[in-house]
Specification:
heterodimer; A: mainly alpha; 2 domains; 75% helix; 0% strand; B: alpha/beta; Rossmann fold; Alpha-Beta Plaits; four-stranded antiparallel β-sheet; 33% helix; 30% strand
Chain lengths: 519, 301
Amino acid sequence: MIRFALRRERVRVPIYLLVMFALLASTAAQSESLYATQAQRDEYAATVTGNPGLIALVGPAYRLTTVGGDTAWQWGGIGAIVAALMSMFIVARHTRGEEQSGRSELLRANVLGRRASAAAALAVVTAVNVLLAAVVALSLIALGQPAAGSIALGASLGGAGLLFAGVAIVAMQVAQSTGGASAIVGAVLGGSYLLRAAGDVGDGTLSWLSPIGWAQSMRPFADERWWPLLLLVGGGAALSAAALALLDRRDDGAGLIAPRPGPARASAALTHPLGLAARLLRGALIGWATGLFLAGVSVGLTGQDVERLLGDSAEVDKLYNQAGGSLVDNYLAVSLSSMALIGTAFAVQAMLRMRSEETAGRAEPLLATALARPAWAAGHLAAAAGGAVLILGALGLGAGIADAVASDDAGRVPLLVGSALALAPAAWVLTGVAIALVGLAPRATAAAWGALGACFLVLYLGPLLSLPDWVMDLSPFTHVPLLPAAAFDAVPLLALTAIAAALAAAGLAGLRRRDIPVT
Amino acid sequence: MADAISVSGLVKSFGSVRALDGLDLNVADGEVHGFLGPNGAGKSTTIRVLLGLLRADAGDVRLLDGDPWSDAVTLHRRLAYVPGDVNLWPNLTGGEAIDLLGRLRGGLVERRRAELLERFQLDPTKKARTYSKGNRQKVALVAALSSDVELLILDEPTSGLDPLMEEVFRECIEEERREGRTVLLSSHILAEVEALCDRVTIIRAGRTVESGSLSGLRHLTRTSIAVETVEPAGDLATLAGIHDLRVTDHRATFDVDTTHLDEAVRHLTRFGIRSLTSQPPTLEELFLRHYGDEIEHEAAA
């Protein structure tokens, strides 16, 4: 069973690990190059510790005067969240996900015991988290950071992942679907984050109630403490044991909480292809909009301080002065781009939903009605593209509000909302790639993720590796004017929209001509 | 009277697999037509071609006097489909799914919808993920039967239903027939086909093997009898319609054409029946026997 589970994860896990590596490595390298002198580092450290908003958002700052401490500060908290989400997805796929597809019924009726698939999921997620810790530790050591700190950071992230894996597997027993279970884990995660934030700004007691707080209290690169790791791993183990016990009391496919009844009639909105697609995306849309809003707030809060934070050096110039305008605006522009790129994952996922509807056999009954294929596809396309606009708007709104508060200038709100929305055409291009694949090459839709990953690498590793211009140009995000720093230029946005439209048209044409379903 | 469905020489391949190999099918207006075949024969593939989901590689296909591939949307307003394997949206309730399918088709008859929910005993407020297979099928059936269409295409619609619901289904199809609707019913359940259908098409490996009215195909139905008698049963071989007769002492096993079943049992009662087991043939047995006879015929000729 374990081998079976591992095989299924063989593509995703390396991608997660690669992404973590890229993020951490680029941060460490950037930190190194941005603050060349000790004096600059000290100033940076002082600025951060004097900014409670930042501490609340990111985490307690220990030894920011070193590269390691800086990296640990920036990624200790967020990295723990990423590890937690990764663990949740892995656990979900191999426990509830199986039950929902009915596959577990098939397996359980076989020689396996009730606990076997849950145990296998746990084994896999543990292995992945250990791997994560190793990758983080080794990549930092390779960049020249002290071993103890690197290992501590890796262990803190892996430990957090393990703890939340435990939370996830308990949630999977309690809720009646993967969606419900994810909501529970999300709530626990959100609560942990808020508790930690409140604690870190105050006297620190509340942080001890939060697993993210435990991870950060290991203090990588700043006189490491190892015992919080026991809390994390022990907590994860205890939760997993509890989950296995709950498993014994639960039926296959059900949850411990009984399902609520729903409406007996469909609303008028639901019976329209756009309404149906939007309904299917509702949960994801809310999650992403909230997440990007918070990300925007964090970007906005740091914006006005950035001159003090980043200091004044040739490196800063290289990274953040690409488009003229003030440093603050440049920083905001680059940060908005990064967040928007991450948000594009929502749009790609939403578009590929169309394909998963087809393979799940739900497209056929719809297309056997008077619903034309282009109309069906257009509904999904509009939901994905429109959803992208909504979440980018949330990003801009968050950044705008935070920046307006920090700079006492209400005009920043529409400015930043507009800047974030300008990134929509780039997201649309990737949405177009996804629908083109669904229409023309339905068996290869995973390539859409490859395209997104490539854009991601271009953005994060491009400046570091000094990639040639033509490579950078492949990513649509490179072409969006860096607002609010640069001048607004509609031409590239129109061009990107045109490309997205052409890709969508190609996808629709392919969909019209091919068989449904293609298995 | 024009044919509701007329298919001739239909060919469809998936890669190197030839799923349909020159299939013919004709369904007259207003009739209930059975569509039979073993697993993998191509029934669902044919239905998907009729629905414009798959494009035929070769052959003529006409549905309600239109081309199912290019006129799909207009034709679909006049037909309703129940798939063999019903997959619903887990977060939607049964009622929402019914409304969704109905309205996309062009409208539901409200009274009929309410009546059918009652008769099929389906709770429309439960989320689809909590439904058993049978209940999911009921959702698709209610959605199809409460729409006001000319043609119903049903792909193994009762495979998950209990006998009581199967009865409700048959009543509904009878009602549809009285309204003058055309029904294409694909099924493995011979009893159901016998009860409902006027004419039947049997396919095997992508080709039409038999097509005609049920009475014409009556020779396909045989019952297996295993009997133990007080006196050893004699002269069984002389009866009409007896096949594969095996007699040992007081026991006899044989297959008898259903039209001659009465004669055979009456003959047996003369010997005092101690125990009698009768089994209807499975579809596979029917086909094998059918082809077995054909091959024997050809060998003899």
